[in-house]
Amino acid sequence: MMSHSPSLPPEKPDIDFNSESTVQKLARKSKDSPLMVAGLSSFFVIAAFGIYRFRNRGQLSASNYLMQLRVTAQGAVITCLTVGVLKSLYDRYNKDDKTE
């Protein structure tokens, strides 16, 4: 057995990401960054609703309707990611204050 000297950092556990199933990968990602999953979910909900409402778009041209739908879906994702970044910055700032 190898003994670790005090100056060496402890070894990180080996995680084989290739053997993860899709469900396991999604569960790991949702624990690591839940707002990313919320952003992707909001994108798919907005896209599904837009596809459903495409037939009743009124006088709006198809290309204009799809462009507005894309901007709305992207805005939802960007909002979720921005909230996630702000939350991590807030947590980091509060963590630094507590250690002093």
If you had to describe this structure to a student in words, what would you say it looks like?
The chain has 100 residues and is mostly helical. Helix content is 69%, strand content 0%. It has helices spanning 22-32, 34-53, 62-99. The longest helix is centred in the last third of the chain and has 38 residues, at 62-99. The model has no long low-confidence stretch (mean pLDDT 81).
Summary tags:
transmembrane helix; single chain; mainly alpha; 100 residues; HIG1 domain-containing protein; 69% helix
DSSP strand tally: 0
Total helices: the number is: 3
Overall pLDDT level: 81
Q: Oligomeric form of this entry?
A: single chain
Helix content: 55-70%
Instruction: Enumerate the spans where pLDDT stays under 50 for 5 or more consecutive residues.
Output: none
Question: Strand-residue fraction?
Answer: under 5%
SS-based structural class?
A: mainly alpha
Could you say which overall geometry the principal axes of the C-alpha atoms support?
Answer: elongated
